[in-house]
Amino acid sequence: MGVPGGPGGSLGLVEDSRGDSGPWDPLEFPSPATGTPLHPLILHQLAVSEPSLGVPQFMEMGFVDGIPFTRYDSEWGWMEPLTQWMKDGAEPGYWDRNTRRAEKWQQVAADNLETVQERYNQSRGLHTLQWLYGCDLLSDGSIRGSDRIGYEGRDFLSFELGSGRFVAADSTAEITRRRWEHDGTMTEVWTNYLKHECPKWLQKYVGYGKKELERKEPPDVHVSGKEEHGRLILSCHAYGFYPKTITVNWMKGDEIWDQETEWGGVVPNSDGTFHTWARIEALPEEREQYRCRVEHPGMPEPGIFAWEPTSGGNLPVVVTVSVIAAILILVVIIGFIIWKLQSGNTRDGGREGARFHPAPFQESCATDADPTVFPQGERTGRDTTWQPVSSSG
């Protein structure tokens, strides 16, 4: 296993072809590819300048298919499995080796964060540094590698596997880019890792969790619509699908209208599945021309879904039945009260009537536990130590 400053592989993120320097999704590969992703592996590291209770100085999480499967943080001080298949599959010594690797990365990240703060002429305050790296096996047999470093939640430096070049997001990152490309070692190390080392470990992880990771659960698709200010907003929601790969498009007639479509991210559910949505605005009179097209590995063929407002016609029936049921229950309660009053009058001559002893009402207050939030941001390392290290044993 590689360590900072030594040989070995590592994971990272590549800046996309548009050269954006804005925020990025730590679970997405931004670079385009021709094949369909099969199983992505991503390692996400985060360092903060001012740790506090619940916010460790350093954290690392590994993701396969967008599902977290390993975790380390400086407070806990130990690399641990987050899935049963990883716990059962890892060979002896895996957790010891990766804990030591994460501890070395922790020191590297702290040094790198200090370096970047100095370059931006910053001193005190909360600052974040992220490093994301990984690979993806595609259906056409190709490999997509990603190595991305960021500061304060925005791009700082990235590596393009295809061209073998680093891309700087600003003049400050340009200092590091020049040093790395002049040295030449970093290009060789990252290319070897992303093309060879990372895919090898990805295949091993997929082997550990084959039953879970290669299952196919088709999405449950719901289409809805509502009118606002003379416009019809159509929404297409896909729920409970696995794997993460999915395509949701709005069509007008036989043409896909991607330019007019707004998409939500592919978000994990607590049960290991995912959900997403796509929305489009239309003229109310053109409603029947719009269809939602959903393509997913769990579906034998793409599905076409339309909004049927008449399907809401069952609502009045449900409401009517509910009202009738409520009336019947009320009649029964009133009848029971009358019966009790009459029976009480019969027993005591009507002097006291029926006595009611209502049970005390106790109000309960339930609160939901705060969800664990994985911090957003990016990560870097010092010029002399920013070398990839294997996320595997």
UniProtKB/TrEMBL annotation:
Keywords: Disulfide bond, Glycoprotein, Immunity, Membrane, MHC I, Signal, Transmembrane, Transmembrane helix. Residues 219-296 form the Ig-like domain. It is a single-pass type I membrane protein. This is Ig-like domain-containing protein. Belongs to the MHC class I family. The chain crosses the membrane at residues 315-339. PROSITE patterns: IG_LIKE, IG_MHC. It comes from the Eukaryota. InterPro entries: Ig-like_dom, Ig-like_dom_sf, Ig-like_fold, Ig/MHC_CS, Ig_C1-set, MHC_class-I_related, MHC_I-like_Ag-recog, MHC_I-like_Ag-recog_sf. GO terms for biological process: antigen processing and presentation of peptide antigen via MHC class I; immune response. GO terms for cellular component: external side of plasma membrane; extracellular space; MHC class I protein complex. SUPFAM superfamilies: Immunoglobulin, MHC antigen-recognition domain. The lineage of its organism: Eukaryota, Metazoa, Chordata, Craniata, Vertebrata. Residues 383-393 have a biased composition (Polar residues). Residues 1-31, 348-393 are annotated as: Disordered. CDD domains: IgC1_MHC_I_alpha3. It is found in: Membrane. Residues 1-11 have a biased composition (Gly residues).
